[in-house]
Amino acid sequence: MIGYGYWGRNHVRILAGLPGLHVTVIENRPDALREAQQRYPMVAGASSLDEVAHVLDAVVIATPPHAHGPVGLQALRAGLHALVEKPLATSVRDAAALVDAANDTGLTLMVGHTFEYNAAVQKLKQTISSGELGRVLYIDTARLNLGRYQGDCNVIWDLAPHDISIASYLLGEFPRKVSVWAQRNVGRHHADVAYLRLDFGEGSAPAFIHVSWLDPNKVRRITVVGDRKMAVCNDLSDTERLRIYDVGVATPELCGSGAIDAANVAYRTGDITSRRVDFVEPLLVQDSHFIDCVRTGRRPDTPGESGLAVVRVLAATDEACRSGGTALVERTDEGEIATAEVAL
Ligand SMILES: NC(=O)c1ccc[n+]([C@@H]2O[C@H](COP(=O)([O-])OP(=O)(O)OC[C@H]3O[C@@H](n4cnc5c(N)ncnc54)[C@H](O)[C@@H]3O)[C@@H](O)[C@H]2O)c1
After folding, report:
1. Fewer CB within 10 Å, N or C, the chain?
2. pLDDT tens across 101-115, in order?
3. pTM for this prediction
4. How many CB atoms lie within 10 A of CB 104?
C-alpha cells in the first residue's frame, strides 16, 4: 500500500482484513507510517518503494495524483502488479506510459474507478439495460461537499473521474466531446466548482456533471432520465440508494408553429419505488477484485485502458477550460497537465 493518507487508510483497513495477504505500508511521512503500524501491528512498513519492491507482488497506489504516473511506472518496472487510484495519472502521456508498461510486461494494471464496484450503480446499469427506463435522454450527476480542497489538481481532476467513469459505464462508451464551465473561488490556481457536459457517440444521451468543493451540502447523486421512467441513485442514503420514478411527460401535440402547446402537456405521475441494494463496501469489492485479478490473471473490470480513457476526457476539460468552449477528447493526446488555469 503506497500512501497512508485520507484514502490510503481505507485501503489498508480493507487489505489488512483480506485473507492470504501480507501488507506493507509504504509512506514517506514518518508520523503517518508510525500511525499505520500502531493501528495494524501485523503490517510491515517502509518509507519508499525502493526499500521493499523486491519482496512485493503488487501495489495499491493512493498517493496524490501527480505521483500516480511516476510511482506506478516504478512499480510496473519492478515487476509489480498495480492498482492505481483515480485519476490514473495527471497527463495523457503518463497514463499511456502506465498502460504500455503493463501491456509490455503482462502485469495487471487496474484503476480505482470505485463507483463501478458500487452495488447501487451496478443495479442502475441493469435497470437501464433491461429497458425499464426506456431510451435514456440524459444523465445528471452531482458530487458536492465543503472540501476537500486538493493541492495538486482542480475539482474536475479530483472528483469528476468518478462521474466520467459512471456515465461511461452506464452508457457503455466513453465521451467524445466535453464542454466546461468552471470557477475558482478560493486560492490562486484551481477551479473549485465546475459543470461539465459530456457528449457521447451519435444518438447517445449526454451527461451533465456538477462537481464542487464549495457547497453547503454533501451530495452524491446520479439521475438518469429516460423517456419511460427515471432513476435516482443516492449514494448517501442508508435505505434508498436507488429509486425508480414511474413519471414522465406524454408526447405533447405540436402547435402549427412547431412549438409545444404547453396547456396540453400531460404529466404522468406513477409510483416511486425503492430497489433493494445490499450494502457491500465498494472499496472492498474493488480491492478484492484486484487481488483476484492478480492471482488469476483475469483482466480487471476497470483496466488501465479505462483509466487512460478517463484521463483523456480530463485533459479535454483542461483544453475546454482554456478555450472557454468545447474540446474533442481525441484531440487531447498530448494533454499535459491537470492544473491549467481556468478561463474566467
Ligand atoms: N476512490 C475514491 O473514492 C477516492 C476517494 C478519495 C481519494 N481518492 C484518491 O486517493 C489518492 C490519495 O488521496 P488522499 O486524499 O488520501 O491524499 P493524501 O494527501 O491524504 O494522502 C496521500 C499520502 O501519500 C503519501 N505519499 C505521497 N507520495 C508518496 C510516495 N512516493 N511514497 C509513499 N508515500 C507517498 C503522502 O505522504 C500522503 O500521506 C488520490 O489519488 C485521490 O484522488 C480516491
Report:
1. C
2. 999 999 999 999 999
3. 0.94
4. 10
